[in-house]
Input
Amino acid sequence: MQLRLAVVSALLLTIQGVDAVSSQRVASAGSKSGTGNPWFSLLTKSWALAGESEPDQTKGLDDLAKNIVELAKSGAPDETMVNAVESIRAIVHDMKAAVNDSHALAQQQINQKAKAVASCQVPPHTDSDYLDRAIIHGENSIENVMTCRAEEVPPYDAWKACEAEKARCSNTTECCAALVQPNKYCLNPGTAPSPLPFEATCEGTSRCKDEDVTTKLAFFKEKLAELDAAEKACEDSRKGCKESYDCESLKTIWETQRTWCNRNHTNFEQGYCDLATSLEAKWDSYYHCYDTNFNALYEEEYTQMAQLPGREQEWRALLRIDSLLGALTSSDATKALQACIDKKYTHEDWAHLELMYPTYDASFTPRAHCTEELQEPGTSIFSQTWYSSKSRDYGAHAFLLIPKSLSTYGCVSGISSHYCPRVSDATALLTVSKKVSPGHRSKAKHVQHPATRPTRL
Ligand SMILES: *[C@@H]1O[C@H](CO)[C@@H](O)[C@H](O)[C@H]1NC(C)=O
Ligand SMILES: *[C@@H]1O[C@H](CO)[C@@H](O)[C@H](O)[C@H]1NC(C)=O
Ligand SMILES: *[C@@H]1O[C@H](CO)[C@@H](O)[C@H](O)[C@H]1NC(C)=O
Output
């Protein structure tokens, strides 16, 4: 009796985890065989024993083997034992099926989570057709900007011409020659040369010598020519000059036009701001989707990896019990039992319990990266691409094309996320008011496989 009890508890130690199935089966088998079957009740009494640690299980199994050998030696199996063995066999079969089910479920859990990762939509690269239609051409097109900038040229030139004339006509240098003083156009006339020294030669004499007269005449002729030349220079320098200049009103006309063009300019650039904003948002949600699902998959794999050895041990135990049960009813029980004991089970015996881990698979889709370069209004490369290089085609002044600041400046670097690269530009063109560091998003960190992850069994 003691021996048999030992056999039963050892047997039970080796079987764990499939309580529900086994107790159900035990209940029905028990009632079928009746309570009068001592073998059955011995083998099944506390079937749903709580799990033991793995070394205990293995020891239990070895004890079981030893004890069954002893039991078999003690005499030929009677009918109640044969019946009990059959019932237990059926239970073992159910337990194997349950292990299979739990394996299938585990793989299913992993696959489901892998599917969720795969379902994250990678944002598509912006269609060049869209750029053409919605930004470069449409209502706020580059054509409009450039046409407007070209229209800005005449009022700008008129204002500048006015300023130049005003400057020219206020330059008194030519009209300040000493000979022509005083002259109303010379603001600082200084002193005109005195004619008195030239009179001195004839002074006090009743009559000038011919020679003196000739000399004097020549001298005054020369002076006269000098005077004429100085007067002409003064006159010439003032040719076309008006009494006053109202350049400010011309400036206002230009500035009004410029305001229009700036608006136009802003509208065009806004297209690039909007495009960048929407792309960054799409990538943000893609990253969120991928990272969230990847983490879930990764954790699932980790969980399943940890559970796999237990499932494999359970299968191994069931194989041994199956073998031992067969030995009990075999014609040469001792030999059959020895064969069971000597049998070494390997991975080959439960190869079907192997799990596929998608993140380890070469074909697993890694997280995609944005390769679309975003154009950044307000940078020199942007204005080079869109404005300076095209100015001649439209007859616009290149230097007029780039206003000092527009609300669009910095609209791309100002976006909080930086998934997509920016069209490379080391030198910022204009003082972009918002200084935004192109830091990386800290929220969604892509989880790396830690090196410490347990190796697969
Ligand atoms: C367990 O699964 C394997 C592989 O699919 C199969 O060969 C075996 O018959 C299954 N066993 C039971 C008891 O369901
Ligand atoms: C843009 O420029 C075009 C052409 O000069 C003009 O007709 C249009 O009104 C401008 N748009 C805006 C919003 O200023
Ligand atoms: C005024 O005109 C003279 C002679 O044309 C020139 O040398 C000088 O630079 C001008 N002065 C200014 C302030 O433009």
Summary: The mean pLDDT is 77.
